[in-house]
């Protein structure tokens, strides 16, 4: 991947200025792949290119100047720096500064030029003393005056040490940033991440134009003498591929009401009753709203605010068909800490509550603590932020209210809607995802943060495990998806293999318990799998799954189909004729599938764009059929996969990947966050084994989609 600054084809909002002495670099990712090519022709080599952007540190910038430009010293109104040595040496600011420069390569501006990565911050130059070769003690300031005749301008500024030689110290003002350094994940701030995401959302028409300009600038085109000398010729234009748009299913609500999606991706179900309404009985509300919330909504007492919102929830639930009993208790939590939350949760367990709602001011962070207690007491919970309450009560945003109600129904075991792929329930195509003996399973991994180079060199180990999340239709309704997670060894080359045998047994037992049948066909989706890991799935993972199935019964032999799903690729699919001004108009339409020419010549691949990209250029998921002993046709695989993208159950729109993977992803993230919440408690778990015993659902929550 080559990155550089290019200003002839980019608008200001596409290359925004970055703070902290950083800039945005523009470039081109490129690779050469052997693909299927034209039908009836031998497979051929293709150059795959895409525009890429990344944050870089300013080249050759004085390190002190870089620190002075950090956002912590910038007045948001004037944009001017209020940097001072006194402010920079405050402990809190030093901690933030170190996060942004640790590992940064710098070079000295005196003597023999030396380049090294920063390891840590140390005392100011006028305080830090060390012993010289002649046995005398001197400060860093004195040393530079004596040996280099340099009088430091900022002797009260902290010094920095080398990463590999931690007892060697340098004044910040005598260092410059080494060139061409990409900003690492640890060196990014949340604001910069948000800025980068926004800047990368380029409309298809612009992105295609930029890609062409950049690939031409790199001479990836006809007439390149270096390629010609090697016997290589490159076609100038982009490759045209045939595609088709799969038909959208009908959405089936209560009373057999059918709703047809608009634009193949979204629909309005606000006048429909849920297909299988749940019972909202014996429930309570815990409010941690503040007087600020009541002032914003012009309500005298925030207790009244809570009652009004609860009344809206109850009314809307009844309209959607939910059997609602009035809220049994509204409790105002005065002390926002874990002990108070736990005390209230325990009191609700004693009252056999089935559902707990938390109304929380936006400034209070307690979601992960609530979910930690949810596992301990096995009472399903839902947190709603004050801004969402505001959206409903002051701005009448009914869609926000409907999303909350849809989650309530799912969390209590209800089903909001099903889909029908054909025009009639009896159509063969509808059986693809409605057969009661076909099980769909998705697997997703959540990893702990990667160790830095310094931590690896010091022999550091991961402080928390990886989390393997799964989602499957192991419920009575074949289109209802539940899920859970399990803790595994962190960041192993074979992430899932060791757990898949016992996990597939657990999932099959839940399926059998809910449906009274054993699936004859199991379809598996693995997320985040690269082409280099196809054999890992086809061999290791499938062998583990076969072993687990065989342990249930030697005579039980269901058919297996396994697909890998990836968004981590640089193939972009554009309309042949891009028109319109909005992303939804310029992007390929939802339901677009491409399964020829730009796919692997040795394995069945397809691209399926089920969702609508509302900003930027769509990143179309790529699927590979890596294992199948069912002889299922590819058009059926594509149709099933497309249908599964309609079953999110909360949002009334398609999602980018099949819902088993969505549920698996949410479960993996839930396990990750619960582990962190537990690690801050006195009784924190001490091993992966203990985590799987205490931090994974063992009771009633296994029967519902608790993380809807």
From TrEMBL:
InterPro entries: PAZ_dom, PAZ_dom_sf, Piwi, Piwi_nem, RNaseH-like_sf, RNaseH_sf. Residues 393-669 form the Piwi domain. SMART domains: PAZ, Piwi. It holds the Pfam family Piwi. GO terms for molecular function: RNA binding. It comes from the Eukaryota. Belongs to the argonaute family. This is Piwi domain protein. CDD domains: PAZ_argonaute_like (cd02846), Piwi-like (cd02826). Residues 59-179 form the PAZ domain.
């Amino acid at each position: 991947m080559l990155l550089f600054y290019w200003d002839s084809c980019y608008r200001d909002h596409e290359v925004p200025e970055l703070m902290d002495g950083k800039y945005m670099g523009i470039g081109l990712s490129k690779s050469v792949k052997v693909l299927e090519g034209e039908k009836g022709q031998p497979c051929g080599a293709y150059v795959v290119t895409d525009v890429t952007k990344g944050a870089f540190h300013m080249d050759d910038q004085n390190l002190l100047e870089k620190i002075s430009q950090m956002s912590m010293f910038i007045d948001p109104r004037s944009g001017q720096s209020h940097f001072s040595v006194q402010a920079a040496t405050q402990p809190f600011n030093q901690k933030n500064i170190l996060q942004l420069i640790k590992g940064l390569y710098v070079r000295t501006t005196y003597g023999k030029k030396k380049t090294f990565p920063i390891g840590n911050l140390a005392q100011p130059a006028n305080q830090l003393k060390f012993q010289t070769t002649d046995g005398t003690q001197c400060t860093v300031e004195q040393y530079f005056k004596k040996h280099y005749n340099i009088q430091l301008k900022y002797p009260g500024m902290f010094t920095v040490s080398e990463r590999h030689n931690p007892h060697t110290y340098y004044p910040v003002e005598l260092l410059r940033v080494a060139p061409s350094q990409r900003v690492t994940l640890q060196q990014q701030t949340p604001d910069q991440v948000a800025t980068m995401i926004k800047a990368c959302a380029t409309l298809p028409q612009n992105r295609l134009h930029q890609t062409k300009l950049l690939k031409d600038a790199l001479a990836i085109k006809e007439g390149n003498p270096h390629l010609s000398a090697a016997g290589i010729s490159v076609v100038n234009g982009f490759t045209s591929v045939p595609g088709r748009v799969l038909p959208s299913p009908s959405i089936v609500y209560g009373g057999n009401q059918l709703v047809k999606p608009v634009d193949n991706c979204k629909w309005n179900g606000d006048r429909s009753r849920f297909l299988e309404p749940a019972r909202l009985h014996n429930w309570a509300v815990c409010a941690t709203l503040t007087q600020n919330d009541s002032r914003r909504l012009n309500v005298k007492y925030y207790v009244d605010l809570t009652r009004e919102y609860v009344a809206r929830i109850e009314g809307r639930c009844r309209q959607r068909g939910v059997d609602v009993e009035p809220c049994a208790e509204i409790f105002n939590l005065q002390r926002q800490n874990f002990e108070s939350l736990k005390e209230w949760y325990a009191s609700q367990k004693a009252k056999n509550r089935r559902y707990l709602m938390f109304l929380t001011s936006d400034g209070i962070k307690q979601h992960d603590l609530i979910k930690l207690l949810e596992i301990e007491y096995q009472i399903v919970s839902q947190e709603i932020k004050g801004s969402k309450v505001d959206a409903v009560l002051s701005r009448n945003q009914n869609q926000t209210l409907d999303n909350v109600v849809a989650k309530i129904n799912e969390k209590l075991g209800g089903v909001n809607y099903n889909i029908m792929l054909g025009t009639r329930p009896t159509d063969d195509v509808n059986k693809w995802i409605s057969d009661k003996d076909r099980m769909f399973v998705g697997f997703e991994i959540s990893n702990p943060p990667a160790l830095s180079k310094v931590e690896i060199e010091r022999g550091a180990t991961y402080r928390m495990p990886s989390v393997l999340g799964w989602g499957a239709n192991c419920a009575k309704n074949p289109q209802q998806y539940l899920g859970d997670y399990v803790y595994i060894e962190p960041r192993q080359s074979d992430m899932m293999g060791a757990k898949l045998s016992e996990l597939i047994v657990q999932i099959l037992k839940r399926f059998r318990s809910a449906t009274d049948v054993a699936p004859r066909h199991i379809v598996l989706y693995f997320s985040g799998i690269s082409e280099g890991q196809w054999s890992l799935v086809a061999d290791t993972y499938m062998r583990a799954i076969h072993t687990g199935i065989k342990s249930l019964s030697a005579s039980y032999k269901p058919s297996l189909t396994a697909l890998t799903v990836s968004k981590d690729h640089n193939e972009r699919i554009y309309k042949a004729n891009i028109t319109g001004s909005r992303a939804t108009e310029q992007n390929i339409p939802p339901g677009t599938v491409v399964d020829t020419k730009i796919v692997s010549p040795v394995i069945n691949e397809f691209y399926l764009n089920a969702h609508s990209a509302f900003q930027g250029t769509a990143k179309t998921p790529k699927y590979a059929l890596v294992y199948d002993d069912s002889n299922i046709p590819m058009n059926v695989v594509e149709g099933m996969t497309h249908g599964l993208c309609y079953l999110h159950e909360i949002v009334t729109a398609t999602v980018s990947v099949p819902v088993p993977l969505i549920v698996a992803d949410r479960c993996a993230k839930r396990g990750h966050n619960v582990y962190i919440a537990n690690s801050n408690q006195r009784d924190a778990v001490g091993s992966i084994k203990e985590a799987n015993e205490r931090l994974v659902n063992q009771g009633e929550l296994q029967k519902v989609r608790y993380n809807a």
